[in-house]
Amino acid sequence: MGSIPAATAASRYAATALGQPGDGTPAASGEGAQASGFGALLERAMSATVEAAKASDRAAMEAIAGGGDITSVVTAVARAELALQTTVAIRDRVIQAYQDVMRMPI
To answer: Main localization of the protein (predicted)?
Structure first.
């Protein structure tokens, strides 16, 4: 399996989290221009990860109460797990890049 560059993975994840096409190009927004930059990307990714975890919890609680089906619970948990794995991978790449920069000779 091939490796996807971190920037491409991050932009695809952000696009998916925002409900945009997965080609990495942001779709036009009717609310005005969104904040851009790496910090904004990380903020949106973290928000999407938290929302996926909350949706997973809601689906599980609904199933426990007898109101939901197991398919929706498994789907929600899988999405939350994927979002968390992606966020951790991005964090690891950022830390690795920071450490590489710190090791550079002046």
So the answer is: other
